[in-house]
Task: inverse folding
């Protein structure tokens, strides 16, 4: 069996850099915790229903942030591949299963000869992550970036958004009843 490996490259963002740094500082994120932070932000972006192009520039700041994917992707390859795959699957629910799984969700640089950040799965993941940064800022930094203020915003978000949660639960119950 032939194994295809990814050749990661670094990723530089110019969108949401100030907010991203606030989030890293707020949670005291260490390098080993970056995959789960990026996954959380990507899920928030997916939940918000929007993606932001990787080359988008923030009109509020001219700062950049570079993610050393060449360093921390190999250390967390299985986690990242699962995260990339999951977000790509969620993003392509309208496509045939075989296409999504075989060609998109688990795409490899060596198999398709595509640069790391241009691969569909990596690009999708990080576009959702950038949207997740916006989502975090708009929902959890309402009162400031102090931990108490963020906790208040999270509590308010969780307690005020009950209608959406109820709809999801009702839909799940209906699907289960049909099966």
Result:
């Amino acid at each position: 069996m032939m194994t295809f490996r990814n050749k990661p490259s670094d990723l530089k963002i110019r969108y949401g850099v100030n907010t991203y740094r606030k989030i890293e500082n707020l949670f005291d994120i260490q390098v080993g915790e970056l995959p789960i932070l990026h996954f959380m932000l990507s899920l928030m972006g997916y939940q918000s229903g929007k993606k932001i192009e990787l080359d988008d520039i923030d009109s509020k700041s001219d700062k950049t942030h570079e993610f050393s994917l060449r360093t921390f992707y190999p250390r967390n390859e299985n986690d990242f591949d699962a995260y990339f795959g999951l977000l790509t699957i969620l993003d392509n629910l309208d496509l045939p299963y075989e296409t999504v799984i075989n060609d998109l969700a688990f795409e490899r640089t060596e198999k398709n000869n595509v640069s790391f950040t241009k691969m569909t799965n990596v690009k999708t993941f990080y576009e959702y992550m950038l949207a997740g940064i916006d989502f975090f800022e708009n929902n959890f930094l309402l009162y400031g970036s102090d931990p108490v203020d963020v906790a208040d915003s999270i509590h308010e978000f969780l307690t005020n958004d009950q209608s959406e949660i109820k709809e999801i639960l009702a839909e799940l119950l209906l699907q289960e009843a049909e099966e």
